[in-house]
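stuck on this:

***
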Amino acid sequence: MKKYLLVALATLALSGCITTQEEQSQQPQTPPPTTTAPVTTVPSTGTPETSGQPPVQTIPQPPKLQSIDWSATVQPLVAKMLQAEGVQAGSVLLLDNVKNSTNGSLQTGKITSAMHTALASNNTFTVVPASQLATAKQAMGLSPDDNLVSRSKAIALARQVNAQYVLYSDASGNVKSPTLDMQLMTVQSGEIVWSGSGAVQNQQ
């Protein structure tokens, strides 16, 4: 009888062990913790937008060129000339092209035109018309564009048109900022009754 009991107990003990092993095998196993390797950041060379493209070049703006305001330059000088002492009102005045004595090319026609405009409404002189002046130059064998390069030639032309006064003008110095000289002379004696000079005024 004891023998049977021992066999039964042994059988129960073995079955209990088997059941425990089966329960352990059915339980989910926890995975071992994973280790993350450190990430190394490699610095990039150049920005993606500009990498491989040529740099943008900025073109410098050229300096702004200033032009001369001949009207503003001439008017103050003409105003002083008209107030000169000893000038007989109603006299005929010869006004021809301005002489260019600068170190470059100068559009003297613009200066002469500004002088004609400044004298247009004066009550002191009667300016010789351009058509009469051109005819007188032709009679003397001069070119219509001839600048009166000497005072003696200017006086001779004034006598040809029966003028009493000559306004002799000369632009000198640097062509970019010349000085304008004016001389009012009598035709009869060649005497200089007024002279003035002024630096040019640039346009604003």
